[in-house]
Amino acid sequence: MQINAGYVAVITGAGGGLGSALARALADKGCALALADISEHALNETIAGLPDKAGRVTKHIVDVTDRAAMESFRDDVLREHDGVNILINNAGITLQKSFSTHSLEDWDRIIGINLWGVIYGCHFFDAALTQSPAAHVVNLSSMSSFLGLPGQSSYCATKAGVHLLTDSLWAEWGQKGIGVSSIHPGAIRTNMIMATLEESDDIEQARKNFDLAHKTGVDAEFAAEKIIRGIERDKMRVKIGRDAHLFQFIMRFMPRFGNFVMKKIAVKLAV
């Protein structure tokens, strides 16, 4: 669909990184924005950096793992904006820990943010999107949904869940005129790793991974533009970065090789 000025875009995890870049890109097109994050300070920084072209902007402090909070978020958005055209379920975290050192509380946390947050967003905004004459949903998966990475079992599992959830929605919701896109970024230059750095099994290795992502990854602005283009072209799946394309290629044509390499990396990392 063509994104027009005045369209209402809802973005979770809008306080920084890719979420903030998406807010700026959509504001530049004249969209009204309902921005959600668990951090009010981070949201204030995003809002302060929006271009003047933005339509009405509302701020929502929301824990995406909280079902009642997400329902209230939906109600607040509809009261403030009277409709929704674009929903971007962007909030997410990663834990760089082996499966053996993951606690069940770790699993509850990452499933709550990465998977339930997406499910809640889709569930509660379903009716509003259906009533909109132009609507599109964007769910943030990852290149990690193509290939299991050692030391990131919870991240890979939740992003694979988002991937196939979105494929199902594409098949179902396309019949009622709602576009649906699954986004698969590789490394992006954001501070996502740093948010949970101190919880890593190997903090030094986690810092190296962060440095590598910033050295080889794409800018958040580049990723945001790719996502916007995906919405406008009604793409089912958007891969971002050479690494994401490589991961999918390997697992499509050389899956045994890909898994063998991951096993070697696991041995090297001792996870």
Summarize the structure.
With 271 residues, the chain is of the alpha/beta class. The chain has 10 helices and 7 strands. The protein has a 7-stranded parallel β-sheet, sandwiched between helices.
Explain this structure.
The model has no long low-confidence stretch (mean pLDDT 88). This protein starts with 7 loop residues before the first strand and ends with a helix. Helices cover 53% and strands 14% of the residues. It has ten helices and seven strands. By secondary structure, the protein is an alpha/beta fold. It has a single domain, classed as NAD(P)-binding Rossmann-like Domain (Rossmann fold). It has a seven-stranded parallel beta sheet, with helices on both faces. The radius of gyration is 18 Å and the shape is globular. The protein has helices at residues 17-28, 40-48, 67-81, 104-131, 153-173, 192-195, 203-216, 220-232, 242-253, 255-269, and strands at residues 8-11, 32-37, 57-61, 86-89, 135-140, 178-185, 237-240.
How would you describe this structure in keywords?
10 helices; globular; 14% strand; alpha/beta; Rossmann fold; seven-stranded parallel β-sheet; 271 residues
